[in-house]
Amino acid sequence: MRRALLSVSLVLAGVHASVPTFNAQPYLGANDTVFGALIEGAAVDRHGNFYAVDYKDDKAAVGQAFMQQKLFFKDLERADTWFNAVRFNVDKNGVQEAYLGDVTNHRVVRVRDPGGKGQFAHSEVFCQSPDILQPNDLAIAHTTGRVFLSGMRFTANSVVGDGDLWTCDAMGTATRLGVFYRTNGIEVSPDEKTLYLSEAINQGGSVVSNVVHAYDLDAQAGTICNGRVFVDFAQLDSSASSDVDGMRTDSAGNLYVSRWGAGKIAKISPAGALLAYVHLATIEKVTNLEFAGPSGRDLYAVGACKDDPTKGCIDRYSSSAQGRAFCAQQV
User: Fold this and answer.
1) Which residue in 160, 203, 167 sits closest to 182, CA to CA?
2) pLDDT tens digits along 304-324
3) CA 93 to chain centre
4) 17, 162, 310, 321: which has the highest count of C-beta atoms within 10 A?
């Protein structure tokens, strides 16, 4: 039995050794960044500008990082706001809007630019429920304006209920779709027929499992069915102890998965095959990622800086594919 297991391990090691690996380059290092250690919420607008949260160490502030570092939005009404997720959209009237997930107040805030001048002066609570765990991350079905939310409660021994999945329709009505062990990364496929959701399990204070589920999605109704394990990282590359964080798809349907603590991103095909790794230059605890830049082909990853964990760094990798979120806003 041990000999058989050894043979399987050697085969898997050979497979993983043949997977292409690429290296991201530093974009904002510890000496350049104005973002704090809680940098998260990677997002792109229709112009390819890149955004993240914890601007100037302020949990209530979202900042633009590309093409320049500057404040995008700060909640001046609530002192306890903690934005952890950001997604941009263009509504049916061509108005650009951003959705901001507020962990503390169990809500999603929407800011809009009705004049098309990049001012985003109008803000409102889009959806809210005291039963929403956080939200921790967001995803959008751009054709319907429906938002999906994941959240988590980090405990030493995970139980079902430490994670949840919600959706908010275009009118802001919140509906819970399910409860899970600890959920985190969430994303929608380019054709909006699949929803991806990560789930992790802790036992005795240690992370013992990390998987990504796939569900058939009705983006109009906001319903899911046919849940299945899309990727089990214990089987894929023996990295179950490295948490899945933010996830994004490209225009070809490949899923890019942040591996917190491993300093890399895993690229997964629509069929669930490991295609490549992108190793990060300045970040080990990568929290989120998004495609941005003028053509939407630059993959930006964010996380606390390895050299100075009190600051938030950003690495960049130039890809051949465009990001789903960028493409969906080119209307």
Assistant:
1) 160
2) 999 999 999 999 999 999 999
3) 26
4) 162
